[in-house]
Amino acid sequence: DPEMRIHSMCHAVPNTWYLMGVVLSAGAALDWWRRTSGGADFDDLVEETATVPPGSAGVTFLPYLTGERTPHADANARGVFFGIHGGVERAHMTRAVMEGVSFALKDSLTLMSALDVNPSEAVAVGGGASSPRWLQMLSDVLNLPLRTVGPSEGAPLGAAMLAAVGTGAFANVVEAGGAWLTDLALVEPIADVPGVPSAQDAYAVAYERYRALYPALRDTFAADAGAAGAIGARPQR
Length: 237
Known about the structure:
Elements lengths: L6 E4 L6 E4 L6 H10 L5 H7 L11 E3 L17 E3 L7 H25 L7 E3 L7 H11 L3 E5 L3 H13 L6 H8 L1 E6 L11 H34 L5
Parallel strand pairs: 5-6
Antiparallel strand pairs: 1-2, 3-4, 6-7
Helix pairs in contact: 1-3, 3-4, 5-6
């Protein structure tokens, strides 16, 4: 990426390149919201969102709780709820958090598409991959089939695979993956129903609203970073 919004590096598979988009607060954003909104059980909190249609009734969440890397590379960016009105309940805000993280992941996919990298499916790992409702949302947002695999701990498993190859237990990481990974499920975008607004269409509208917020707030984020630093500074002894 000439604008350095997405990382490009050598892959462990020979003659292959790895593109990496980074969302600094993905599952962590939903965990923050769970704790902040009363500490509900994770599954119960997510299940509440079944009553809210795609787009969260106009509520939008920017998941920039610790700044963001892809696509903004902005340490000053902060989390935002936008569009709250009198009809909003916890379920709307929970769904907005889940959608915001999904949109942040879509930002990376959009950048990859601009580089002529167009995957036909994606693999979901980690804590969020344990939620069927979130997986369906992400599949609809990305408009891609999602595979889940086991074990779900992606980073430590990858490190273990590299170590196994390094010690000669496997000839290469492809062989290691074939031995250790198991396909669990395939989630596909919900098919369109004639005459019924599709989830993909609703998410497309919500995504454009999401994308408009950061440029509108970027200067405010930068200005507030200095003010917050001054307020939060430790007193000198």
